[in-house]
Amino acid sequence: MGIPQLKENDMPAIEQSRILIVATDGFEQSELFEPRQKLLDAGASVTLASPGTDPIQGMEHDKKGDTIRPDITLDAVRIDDYDGLILPGGVANPDTLRMNDKAVGIVRDFVASGKPVAAICHGPWLLVEAGCVSGRTVTSWPSVRTDLANAGAQVVDQPVVVDGNLITSRKPDDIPAFVEAFRKAMTESATAPA
Fold first, then answer.
1. Is-catalytic flag, 122?
2. Which listed residue (98, 115, 122, 136) is catalytic?
3. Of the four, 66, 118, 148, 179, which is 20 to 30 A from 37 by CA?
4. pTM (2 d.p.)
């Protein structure tokens, strides 16, 4: 059973959504740029946060891709200013960020808030570092799965997995399902009774 395809008019909340993306050098280009553009096209406000404000380097697998300038630093992030969080993969990006206390704290606080948190490919390394996967069902790039299992997660091999407010995917090929699941979670979060 696949993810139901949502129509544009079924998602009023996305137009008012404020999405945070956290990334640094070494992010997988498609995993940042494609979700970002799809959300912008849907009317969401998308903010990119990084340790600094110098342009960060994207990667197309093992080759340098495009750069993008972050909108704000991690130190400027206030969880209350955002409705959801996206964590792109790439090997170097989450590996660097999981050593950054501020990045790990942002992830931990977002998960604890109940707001949708979406991590793709190597991005779930940040969920491990933040102590957010124990007892949760998740997926990731194959090389991250042992770390997830060792942290207490139930790991499956599916294009997208939704467990509560956590949304995880395996690789760039999964981006359409990943974004669709995130948009659906954002809509449900916005329409849930307070």
1. yes
2. 122
3. 148
4. 0.91
